Structures are given as structure tokens and as C-alpha cells.
Inverse folding.
């Protein structure tokens, strides 16, 4: 049985935006819609994709800065609400799982691993996105910062996701794309896998992951290597 389910008792925790799903097209389209309403120039997708990963408020702040104007402090709440409402209505217009995601998740589940999402996107939006893409049922838990004591890179966010999935930190691995994921994993003392194609201003290779993957086809073997030898 152990040979058939070598990851039994392990928990694989995923970042969402830029790791599991290419959400940049819909997030940047929403950002540009808000910028347009404020008579500011739109941002090209490739220039704006690396602004993603710290939550909607920070994306708005960085987007306004990149467009040449500070986010008005007295209107921050209003602009945030408009952003969320527009994004919720267009959450999966163009967003798609990265190639190989479904197959890798299936392989990890078949090997016995529990799966969780640890994202700085609000939990309800993360669930809505995963449901729209037919992925929600693959995860034992989806934990946004509102469902944890803190947000990544604080390790308590990662620990909350592992606990919500019924796992333990001694047999957990973090899969992400950016410094927030790397810092959370290092602070929590869990192995780190980074994807090379996500949203980060610092190249993933420079974040010193335990394993760097260029395609999700490589993820199951990476998790086996990192976790398979650990005691169940």
C-alpha cells in the first residue's frame, strides 16, 4: 500500500495566481478598467503581470503608481470595491490553469497527498475562480488571508492552509511562484517548489527553491523526491 500511495499523509499547498492559474489577463483587464474610469492610461499585460501576488489593494496601489498617479487615499475603499465587483463579474473570462495543472493534481491525489490552496486572494474569490475552472473539488482546503491569522509571507498563513487540509507541517510542501511563497515556506521550515513561469519581479531561480520546475508535469516527481522519504 505504501508503494502505491507514497505521499499518504503529505500535504501539497499551492499558491493560486501565477502558480496554478494564469489570472493576469482578467486581473489586468480589471485594473485597466478602473484606470480608464479614472482617466489614466492602461498598462500592457506583460508590464503589469508581475504586479500581481500581494492582493487586490496592493495591485491597485502599484497599478496607479505605474500609470503615473498615486492611489487617492480618500477614495481607496471606493476604488477597491469597484475593482472587486468588476473582477468578480469577469473572474474567469480569460484565466486558465497553466498547462499540466489538472494532470499533476490528479497524480498527487492518486499518490495520497492532500491538496490545499494558500493565496493572498480573498477566499471567496479564490473559491469562485476554482469553481469556474472546475478545479475546486480537487482541494481539501482553500485559505485566503481572511481565513488565517495573517497573510503570506507570514508562515501562519501557510500553517493555516495545511491544518485546514488535515495535514501536518512535518510533511508539507509549498508550491508557488514568488517571494511571498518562498518567504512563507522558509519561515515555516517546509520544502519549496517554485514554477519558472509565474508572476515575480525576482526570477524564481534567484529565490533558491529546493526545486524549480518549468512545467507541471515535473511536479509529482519533485514532491516525491522532497516528501516521499519522510515518515508518514
Amino acid at each position: 500500500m505504501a508503494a502505491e500511495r507514497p505521499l499518504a499523509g503529505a500535504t501539497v499547498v499551492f499558491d493560486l495566481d501565477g502558480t496554478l492559474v494564469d489570472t493576469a489577463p482578467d486581473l489586468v483587464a480589471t485594473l485597466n478598467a478602473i484606470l480608464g474610469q479614472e482617466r489614466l492610461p492602461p498598462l500592457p499585460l506583460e508590464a503589469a503581470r508581475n504586479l500581481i501576488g500581494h492582493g487586490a489593494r496592493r495591485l491597485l496601489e502599484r497599478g496607479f503608481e505605474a500609470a503615473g498617479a498615486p492611489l487617492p487615499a480618500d477614495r481607496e475603499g471606493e476604488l477597491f470595491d469597484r475593482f472587486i465587483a468588476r473582477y468578480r463579474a469577469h473572474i474567469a473570462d480569460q484565466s486558465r490553469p497553466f498547462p499540466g495543472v489538472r494532470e499533476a493534481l490528479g497524480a498527487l491525489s492518486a499518490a495520497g497527498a492532500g491538496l490545499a490552496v494558500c493565496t493572498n486572494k480573498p477566499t471567496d474569490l479564490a473559491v469562485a475562480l476554482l469553481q469556474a475552472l472546475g478545479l475546486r473539488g480537487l482541494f481539501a482546503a482553500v485559505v485566503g488571508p481572511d481565513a488565517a491569522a495573517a497573510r503570506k509571507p507570514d508562515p501562519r498563513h501557510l500553517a493555516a492552509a495545511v491544518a485546514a487540509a488535515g495535514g501536518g507541517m512535518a510533511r508539507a510542501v509549498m508550491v508557488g511562484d514568488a517571494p511571498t511563497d518562498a518567504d512563507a515556506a522558509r519561515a515555516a521550515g517546509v520544502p519549496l517548489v517554485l514554477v519558472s513561469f509565474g508572476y515575480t519581479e525576482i526570477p524564481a531561480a534567484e529565490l533558491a527553491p529546493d526545486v524549480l520546475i518549468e512545467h507541471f508535469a515535473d511536479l509529482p516527481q519533485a514532491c516525491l523526491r522532497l516528501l516521499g522519504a519522510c515518515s508518514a
The two ends are 12 Å apart (CA to CA). The chain has a mean pLDDT of 94. Residues 24-89 form a domain with the DNA polymerase; domain 1 fold (CATH 1.10.150.240).
